[in-house]
Records
---
Amino acid sequence: MTGMVYWLDMAGVIVFALSGVILACRSNMDPFGMLVLAAVTGIGGGTLRDLVLGIRPVFWVSDPSYLWVILATVGVSLVGFHYIHRLSRGFLPIADAFGLALFTVIGTHKALLLGTSGEVAVLMGMMTGVAGGMIRDMLAQRVPMVLREEIYATAAMAGGIVYVTLQALNAPLNLSIGMALALTLGLRLAAIHWHLALPVFAWVTLPPKEADPAAPLSTPAKAKERVRMIRRERKTKR
């Protein structure tokens, strides 16, 4: 990888590791729990990407600097624990958005270097950006961000498509990276701020015949109203 891409990768590890530390603090975990969440978030997506692409050894085995960066992030966080604990709840999704954008570009770039098709490169970029956060959230017993309402994986996919397209047009590497980062980060931050989401398709349910044969069927309008109520309840809880 070029020097710029390498340092972007390191920046993504730091940001994602910090998001793991923040979630560990809010989940009342000990320092080892903080280290585990920081590690799986920082290198989990890239590890899965390398395994799928058949890269041996995976990136952090051949370059242990990634592990030292994670250790340093956790160490600094322990020293400044009280400051991290006071961060608003909006900081975690914002930090996660920056990590998503960085890792999406890194994953897409690495897949293209290995000669994969554009479609596979986009999927690898999305996997790199999403997988670590999913593992982090599941270990903390939270619904993964990628499965919530706001646009998440879609932002990563859009950024990957832009990167692949610009590289296919022989655009400069700096331009490709900058445009892909801006689009992924912009979409994710916009989704957080305005609660942007893809359409929800609700099932139309049928009432049991034994209970009331004459009961009216659920209509699409009622199903949509139910979805809106669930969204309002989730926003209220936040």
Note: Residues 209-215 have pLDDT under 50 and may be disordered.
---
Amino acid sequence: MIDLEYLAFLENILTDNRKEKFQKVLENRTKHFTIAVEDIFQMHNTSAVMRSCEIFGIQELNVIEQRYGKSIDKEIAMGAQKWVDINTFDSITNCLDTLKSKGYQIIATTPHENDCLMEDFDISKPSALFFGTERDGLSEEILKRADGFLKIPMVGFTESLNISVSAAIIIQNLTNRLRNSNIDWHLSENEILEKRLAWAKNSIKDIKRIEERYFAENVK
């Protein structure tokens, strides 16, 4: 449950322009689609995917770290990690089970005999879009448990794109179609309040000291 008085206290510290920007961005945020990346060795690719999520309004990025212990490249992400929720998983199975339990269908973005072209993809269902490496693609476990397959139409000799490029193309296409549809894709009222609180905290310098003072004065 969001402490509305605490939220109001923090937002009172922010400028009106900052608060208006938060509201405008949150109006275009969605969890209808979520993105998952699997064991990306080059973390600048994961960071670039995160940046695409932020730019095109995807609120959550799921990162499977089964083999490589890497950290987000902040220079590539360019601050996107402050605005996108990062869920990390230590196994493919855990990630798949979690996303399925949230009601997402699992979509593998890879050429496949039963694949679907991007423009034909049914955007009405909440979907978790999985991306693998350019070299190895997605793991067998994800391919076996996928509910569907999605690919980008290509007309050249090269058969694959860098993961960050593929993700940017797909995310932009699907989110644009989503916003032009009648689907209820927005964040819930409570999710918006949660993000307002988190983003306010991310925007205020010395937030720990301010929090300590606030709760010392207001919590009996």
Note: The beta strands are 33-38, 60-64, 85-89, 105-109, 115-117, 127-131, 148-151.
---
Amino acid sequence: MEVIKTEIEGVVIIEPRIFKDARGYFFESFSQREFEEKVGHVEFVQDNESMSSYGVMRGLHFQRPPYTQAKLVRCVRGRVLDVAVDIRKGSPTYGKHVAVELTEDNHRQFFIPKGFAHGFAVLSETAVFQYKCDEFYHPEADGGISILDGSLGIDWQIPTEHAILSEKDTKHPLLKDFESPFVYSK
């Protein structure tokens, strides 16, 4: 696998080695050993999958301490724009984001460390999205910031009038009204 660094330290794009032939393709979607060598030590404990249709936007989500989550995400069918926003108080990149297109064809994965809000927008007719988490889901620790916060400067590639949001996701605060539970440490 190749690890591509982004503008925000710790947030990386992973490109697997794909082996193609007349039968199709094969790739190792996750190796704990290689992940630790190239990205760092993370013990994933839960895998999730969602299916969504064009225009669905999920996020920007995180879990509050002590149940913070790092995530390794990928799109196994369709196409999504995936985004991580730095919400660590004191971080030199606080409020900045990294966006990457994840598709069934590019097989890219995106690693989002703890201290980031995460979301995605479905750009294809449907998309199947998978993510590994290093902490179990704790509904009492759910948090989020508004996925439509214009101050974040995210181009979701979907006209706002076509965005499909859950009721919960329409109620998250803007970044300027948000008190982050995360603190940056070098």
Note: The helical segments are 32-38.
